């Protein structure tokens, strides 16, 4: 039964179209991962500097923010930045790709 899959031109075109859509989805996902990783690095640096500075200078932070709490603050910001930027990038890329073949 699987041998008769691509005999008509319509079925061959749909298989080629499916392969093209799959490669576009992979590229879209890769762009999201790269953008998310860049955002996570920037967010880590932007969060780590004030966190470490406040622990050294503020008495309340020195007393209440142990190294685990500091790491939790920094990693939470980095993780949320990664997922937000990756999601927005994937959606923007998918939206841009969906209008490529459209002709009004």
From TrEMBL:
The chain crosses the membrane at residues 28-49, 69-86. Keywords: Membrane, Transmembrane, Transmembrane helix. InterPro entries: Enod93 (IPR005050). The keyword Glycosyltransferase does not apply. It comes from the Eukaryota. This is Early nodulin-93-like. It comes from Nelumbo nucifera. The lineage of its organism: Eukaryota, Viridiplantae, Streptophyta, Embryophyta, Tracheophyta.
């Amino acid at each position: 039964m699987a041998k008769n899959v691509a005999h008509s031109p319509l079925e061959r075109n749909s298989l080629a179209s499916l392969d093209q859509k799959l490669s576009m989805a992979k590229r879209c996902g890769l762009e999201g991962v790269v953008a998310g990783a860049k955002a996570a690095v920037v967010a880590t640096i932007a969060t780590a500097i004030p966190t470490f500075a406040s622990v050294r200078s503020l008495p309340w932070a020195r007393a209440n923010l142990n190294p685990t709490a500091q790491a939790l603050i920094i990693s939470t910001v980095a993780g949320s930045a990664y997922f937000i930027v990756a999601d927005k990038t994937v959606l923007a890329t998918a939206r841009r790709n969906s209008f490529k073949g459209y002709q009004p």
